[in-house]
Amino acid sequence: MEVDDGWSIFRLELLEARSSIEIKLLAAKKLKEIVSMEIATEMFMVE
């Protein structure tokens, strides 16, 4: 899985974020991606 690569990119975005609002938006976006990936993985494993 490319989770490590995703988190490296996420950390760069976090460093570039100018405000706490941007950081919260990026964190929410990343969390949504991870949850979607986990759900997709679980659905794939069930089939």
Task: Give the topology.
Blueprint lengths: L2 H14 L3 H27 L1
β-sheet strand percentage: under 5%
Structural class of the secondary elements?
Answer: mainly alpha
Termini gap = 19 Å
Percentage of residues in helical conformation:
over 70%
Q: Give the uncertain stretches in residue-range form.
A: none
Task: Please tell me how large the radius of gyration is.
Answer: 13 Å
Number of domains: 1
Total strands: the figure is: 0
Shape, principal axes of CA atoms: elongated
Mean pLDDT: 78
Major pleated sheet:
none
**What's the number of helices?**
2
What order do the SSEs take from the amino end to the carboxyl end, as H and E? HH
Q: Which characteristics define this entry?
A:
47 residues; mainly alpha; 2 helices
Q: In short, what is this structure?
A:
This protein is mostly helical and 47 residues long. It contains two helices and no strands.
Task: Describe it.
This protein is mainly alpha-helical. It has one domain (about 5-45). Helix content is about 85%, strand content about 0%. The protein has two helices and no strands. It has helices spanning about 5-15, 20-45. The radius of gyration is 13 Å and the shape is elongated. The model has no long low-confidence stretch (mean pLDDT about 80).
